[in-house]
Specification:
By secondary structure, the chain is an alpha+beta fold. The protein contains nine helices and four strands; from the N terminus they run αββββαααααααα. It folds into two domains: 105 residues, no CATH class; 34 residues, no CATH class. 48% of the residues lie in helices and 10% in strands.
């Protein structure tokens, strides 16, 4: 993937608004009204605003910029609007946008077809099947109780599936051992025995 492909808009195009300096407009990220004081020099020129009586200035998140933050990858928004990816992340958080939106998902999907990603995938698959590694992971789990949500997921996954004869025998031996010396096996009716 070429560098220019990484910053392409997937849902765009987005256009710069034409607001006169001094206009008061609502910023969706700051959740307050701001005054337009200037325009950015980015590839997509965007109004810069500040809150009344406060000196901090930044891009006003509204209209097409708010839509871009919701739909596009951080990398694309940062490139075209001339801000850092950290700023875009803050805007996303303020607007309630998830970490992986459609633009980010498409970018990550495209990354997967890169040669380096294919090499990393093959390496991970090989490491995942390494017997020494698998034995080490199994040994680390011995004696540790599984979390309740894992036990429930395993139970649901096994529901309705028959157990093998070997598994049934192991379960029977385990249940007999857990009864203890003073407990008797339950008496089953002839129909169930």
């Amino acid at each position: 993937m070429k560098a220019k492909d990484r910053v392409q808009f997937r849902a765009g195009p987005y256009k710069s608004p034409s607001l006169p300096i001094g206009t008061i407009i609502a910023c969706e990220s700051r959740d307050t009204d701001v005054i337009v004081v200037d325009y950015s020099d980015a590839k997509i020129r965007w109004p810069i605003g500040r809150r009344p009586r406060l000196g901090a200035k930044s891009l006003i998140v509204f209209g097409d910029l708010a839509e871009a933050v919701k739909q596009e990858s951080c990398l694309a928004v940062a490139h075209w609007f001339g801000v850092s990816t950290q700023t875009v992340t803050v805007w996303r958080r303020n607007l309630g946008v998830p970490a992986v939106n459609p633009g980010t998902r498409a970018l990550k999907s495209d990354y997967f077809f890169e040669p380096w990603a294919k090499r990393a995938q093959k390496k991970a698959w090989a490491k995942g099947q390494d017997p020494e590694r698998c034995a080490k992971i199994a040994a680390s789990k011995i004696g540790k109780k599984r979390p309740p949500h894992v036990i429930e997921a395993m139970r649901i996954g096994r529901t309705g599936k028959p157990q093998s004869a070997e598994t049934r025998k192991k379960m029977s031996i385990s249940q007999q051992a857990n009864r203890g010396p003073n407990k008797k096996a339950p008496v089953l009716p002839d129909a169930l025995a």
